[in-house]
Write a structure and sequence with these properties.
The structure is a homodimer.
Chain A lengths: L1 E7 L3 H12 L1 H8 L2 E8 L16 E2 L2 H6 L5 E4 L7 H10 L4 E3 L2 H18 L3 E2 L10 H8 L5 E7 L2 H13 L3 H10 L8 H4 L2 H15 L9 E2 L7 H9 L2 E11 L3 H4 L18 E12 L11 E8 L3 E8 L3 H21 L12 E2 L6 E10 L5 H11 L4 E7 L6 E6 L2 E2 H12 L4 E10 L34
Parallel strand pairs in A: 1-2, 1-4, 2-3, 4-5, 5-6, 8-10, 10-13, 10-18
Antiparallel strand pairs in A: 7-9, 7-11, 9-10, 11-12, 14-16, 14-17, 14-18, 15-16
């Protein structure tokens, strides 16, 4: 059986998809019983060479003519952005045509609406390629883990920032230099803001939370911090402690605010009963990750997502998060699904979405790393440490690096409330002895430790600075 | 809708499954529209407490009565072994009942036959839990990568041996001590042979090749070496070179023998045209893996599978490979699939299997590590090196460790043919100056390097011994 595919957009991914359909056509036909044919392709410019072997008549500059073409069985949307992609997909679905898209931005904002349209039309809307490139995240979260109580999803979902942080970590270079290298290597755009400021990761975090927890989270609800404030010194200090610094997208179920907010103590450990409260915390920020954590060894442009399930335990999926061919591979997997379902009259399972409260980051708890440039004179440490105490943040250890004008205090805290830590940072920056408050890094801790102050299951030497002097908050400093 | 599940066997996995169905029943019903009920359970002993909350009437000692019970909609087989599991599954399929199994041994030998029975009956036979525990390997290989030309699958698929090798590597202890620790920790059976001699991994390798390449490979066709010959000294030497030693299950498409066998040179790089020749190489043995390879950081009891696709690139899936709850989680994913399909009248896609030649390991190529205990006197190296040359194995580097009675030569070779290397080992063991030929370790190289002698894409310092003296085969030693 021939299945005619209409493709909207023919850039990197689109041309890789056309090549794949041509190269793998026989094999797919043998394995699945149908032949996927690139039939009509909408492009912006007709005269551009796309390196694909298709007749001129296959191309058009009118994407609507592809969607409405009666011979087109399935539509693949690779234009990106909100408009006109949103309207084109809606139109295709309403015409009863399954749609495959790689459009992260669109799904992160209008995913729920479009899924509803697909549901009413009784056809598939698939978007494996929108998160994690070639990594089959969506399928695993929706199907393999359908019976699983997922507790947290932690991902390295942006290849550009991971490439930059890897260079900083392995070569000891600073952010600006690593960014220039990334641009020179084609690993970053000339205008890198969408990546380095975390917007790309935040959109992916929204999609991941929606699938993992069956709630409707949109990109703008995701707390977001990029990597532009991370310095070589922070990474080198983290490494001495046994940690890597990664830009993480984190989505987790959290205990309801009423329970978490009643004291300055860390919240109790997550229990099953609280799940019904449906609160979800979603954020993107640089974080310290113990080197024994499987995500810590994800280097360069690779992506990975670490899923913590109540029953399955820890699962990690790793692969190429971007690039024409890896992304086209994910689109092809979806296309084959859509074709199968079209043939059998079924649709791929949808995760029903519910309204959920998205928890403000201010009421979350974790351990922090903070460095503070100070004037080097007696009494400074007492003044600085006092600010932590006044804001209910307990210091786990402190180290002084440098002397005189270069004096810097590096603090590691016990588990503290985010709002208290932010208040501490603000108060510190107003102290006369403080010259500059540097990077604030959050530490990724295990979620299911029975002791909230305990060490991660994947770590055996948290917060140990080998051979360095330590000052504890309980001391006389 | 209620779906009644018949469960054969109620050990670790079975009782975890019953608990899961009870705990997650509401959630699954909400997400999928049906309620999975543990309805009839076959056990060997009725009076054993299994820690599950089910009435006595649910249990029977007759597994056939569960399979034939008209109220049972889906059968889960958790008995293990060939008989009577094979016959029970056949009977269930012939009665039109979908079957979910975690039986690695059975699928690795009679998988093709049972899939054929399922195909004729038009119902599902699902076995996600048979390989890699909670890791959704089968689904990804069958569905997400349905359009992908998979070139190689490399896995750490046995938790016991990975635990032992991790202890040996991290604590510098020898095999016997690590094995005792593993037994004490419940990570190894009192009779550990199925694990440490590679039988378990070989069965999983057979299943992986069948799914990845659509060919019918059975367990006994898999070349198999365990870890009992690996010594602490080998691991420590490998670590100095930047490598970890892991027990790997490797399945790959290889160029046809006629091309590979025509010279002592390494075969040319794999090209698409050769795929049609359908030759597959499947093996389990300890191997050296560069520490920058994502599999190198898989520690302790965890499993991971690294998939190299022509389009998707490198994908790794990581998680708990064994244990009652992780395995039950995979069974539950399959159960939900089977229930969905039963409702919609569909069946999960099957990968058509074809007859394929399984390539003998003797005609494969790789780099080798070999250590040889020798008497320490002039001319020994020349004699030993001569044996390599006579057998067409080119030495890349040699290092002497120790002196006098403790003298040991450690060789690293260029890429060589397995049969030549085996002949070298045999000839060395017959030399009078050789006291003992120690471990032979193969090195995992990238498959898609354009230079067969080149470095792995994930490595930048192959074969460099920092600060140690080197003797090259071209030298005067």
């Amino acid at each position: 059986m021939v299945v005619k595919v209409g493709i909207l957009g023919c850039g990197n991914v689109g041309s890789a998809l056309v090549s794949l359909l041509q190269e793998q056509g026989d094999e797919i036909a043998k394995r699945s019983g149908f032949r996927l044919v690139p039939f009509r392709i909408a492009v912006r410019q007709l005269d551009k060479d796309r390196g694909v072997n298709l007749s001129k008549e296959s191309f058009t500059t009118d994407p609507y003519s592809v969607v409405t073409d009666e011979e087109v069985d399935i539509v693949v949307e690779l234009i990106g952005g909100i408009d006109p992609a949103r309207d084109l997909i809606r139109e295709a679905l309403n015409l009863g045509k399954p749609v495959v898209t790689a459009n992260k931005e669109l799904i992160a904002t209008y995913g729920a609406e479009l899924m509803q349209t697909a549901g009413k039309a009784g056809v598939d809307l698939l978007y494996e390629a929108a998160v994690g490139g070639a990594i089959p995240l969506v399928r695993i979260l929706k199907e393999s883990l359908a019976g699983e109580r997922i507790r947290r999803v932690v991902g390295i979902v942006n290849g550009t920032t991971n490439y930059i942080l890897t260079r900083m970590s392995e070569e000891g270079i600073d952010y600006d230099e690593a960014l220039l290298q990334a641009i020179a290597q084609g690993m970053a755009e000339a205008d890198p803001r969408a990546d380095v400021e975390g917007y790309d990761a935040a959109a992916k975090a929204a999609i991941l939370s929606s699938i993992a927890f069956g709630v409707n989270v949109v990109a703008k609800e995701v707390y977001r911090e990029g990597i532009t404030g991370v310095r070589a010194i922070d990474i080198s200090f983290a490494r001495n402690l046994g940690y890597e610094v990664k830009l993480l997208a984190i989505a987790e179920l959290v205990p309801p605010l009423s329970a978490a907010n009643h004291a300055i103590n860390p919240p109790e450990v997550f229990t099953e009963e609280r799940v019904s409260q449906e609160e979800v915390a979603v954020r993107v920020h640089p974080a310290m990750l113990h080197r024994s954590h499987p995500l810590a060894s994800v280097r360069g442009p690779f992506n990975a997502v670490f899923i913590e399930g109540a029953t399955a335990g820890e699962i990690m999926l790793y692969g190429r998060g971007a690039g024409g061919r890896p992304t086209a591979s994910a689109v092809l997997g979806d296309l084959i699904d859509a074709a199968h379902n079209r043939q059998s009259g079924a649709v791929t399972r949808r995760v029903p979405t519910r309204v959920a409260r998205v928890r403000d980051i201010g009421s979350l708890y974790c351990k922090y790393y903070l460095n503070v440039d100070v004037v080097d004179r007696p009494g400074v440490l007492a003044a600085v440490a006092g600010v932590f105490g006044e804001n209910n943040v307990s210091i786990r250890s402190m180290e002084q690096l440098g002397l005189g004008d270069e004096a810097r205090l590096v603090f590691l805290t016990h588990t503290a409330k985010e709002a208290d830590m932010i208040a501490t940072v603000k108060a510190l920056s107003e102290l006369s002895v403080v010259e500059k408050v540097g990077a604030l890094l959050r530490v990724l801790d295990p979620i299911d430790s029975s002791d909230p102050q305990g060490e991660p299951s994947y770590s055996d030497d948290t917060w140990t600075v080998p051979g360095s002097p330590r000052v504890h908050s309980g001391g006389t400093a």
